[in-house]
Amino acid sequence: MNHVIAAPIGMSKYKPLPHIMCYDDFDNGLNGWMDLRCNLVEPGFTPRKSIYKQMRSAPTCLSAAAFGWAGTHGSMDGLYSLKLSTRPVADRYENMPAPGASSMAIKRLTFQRPLNLVQYETWFSYTVEQDRFGHGEKDFRAISFCMDIQDGIHRYVPGIRYVNSVNGKLVKRWQYSHSIARSDEEWGYDSKGEWFANGIDPQWFGKRRPDGSTDSFQWLGEKKHELCYNETDDKINWIYFRMTFDLAKCEYVEMECQGKVFDMRGLAPTLARRYDNIDMLINPFVNIENDTNRRVYMYMDSFCLSFQ
User: Distance between CA atoms of 206 and 96, rounded to whole angstroms?
Assistant: First the structure.
């Protein structure tokens, strides 16, 4: 007798590839997602010295998305979502993110088997803290959806970034992860003796410019893409995101978000040197950043990683 196992009802809002590596419904807990902390590898169990300080970001948590005026949103089809939040600090866009102005959640996985295509899907929403009068959309700088991958030869970070605001000006355009820096030192804001490689951690590194361009992410498409932010900061709307990546070719396939699909064939992330001890790594992560001295929040209703 053949036994058919029904997929969770929540999976019906996704378009996965044939094999599902993980489906994370945050009504059931954190599902292995956690905030990123620095590597405590120096004497005294202290972090490695670096120009970028990771210890100051706010912790990842489960949330019912409660707001003082609107009440409790819950998640898209349940109670809890995964919440990221920053601290109320920021620097100008063309500078390195201020400590605490960025928040990141990551899930640590390895390849189940050699893969061809991998697909990252989520439903998300974002807003700012309701601490002052006025529409705060311009205070939210960027969201990055990425995967940290090492195949035994190279380490690389395919990713998509939504640039919402730059120094108080709404931009609302997409970028894809690909470094144009010429060296590891240039990648790290001209610092020397750092641990990172050109192309790794594009959510933090790579020089930035006042028009929103960076060394780490390149523009995808030529037009604005208006995401649904709503009329006030205490209303959230769930938005679909999908990124498909070809592991065999080490290049993007396509990206989809809120009614728009980008054909990305021929575009590729930057291949960096292999790191020790992390072969077969495939870590999905998400990162947010604020543009002013105001907390910003992002919510992930659920998440699906699939492959063929």
Answer: 9
What is the C-alpha to C-alpha distance for residues 229 and 219, in angstroms, rounded to an integer?
Answer: 21
**Token pair recorded at residue 193:** 């003796």
As given in the structure block, the two tokens for residue 187 are: 């990648």
Count up the domains in the chain and report the number: 1
Between CA 79 and CA 125, with CA 146 as vertex, the angle to 5 degrees is: 30
Residue 16: inside a domain: no
Cut 0.85: pTM above it: yes
CA 297/CA 3 separation, integer angstroms: 42
98-109 confidence digits (pLDDT tens): 999 999 999 999
pLDDT tens-digit profile of 240-268?
999 999 999 999 999 999 999 999 999 99
* Tokens, residue 5: 């196992």
Residue 249 structural domain: 22-307
Q: Which residue has the tokens 């390149």?
A: 218
- Does 13 map to a domain? no
Return the bridge partners of 120, or none: 243, 305
Q: Which residue has the tokens 């960025």?
A: 102
Q: Is 112 exposed, middle or buried (0-12, 13-18, 19+ CB in 10 A)?
A: exposed
Q: Give me 273's structure tokens.
A: 């040197």
Residue type, 147: M
Residue 163 lies in a domain: yes
Burial of 285 (0-12, 13-18, 19+ CB in 10 A): buried
Q: Which residues pair with 257 in a beta bridge?
A: 241, 260
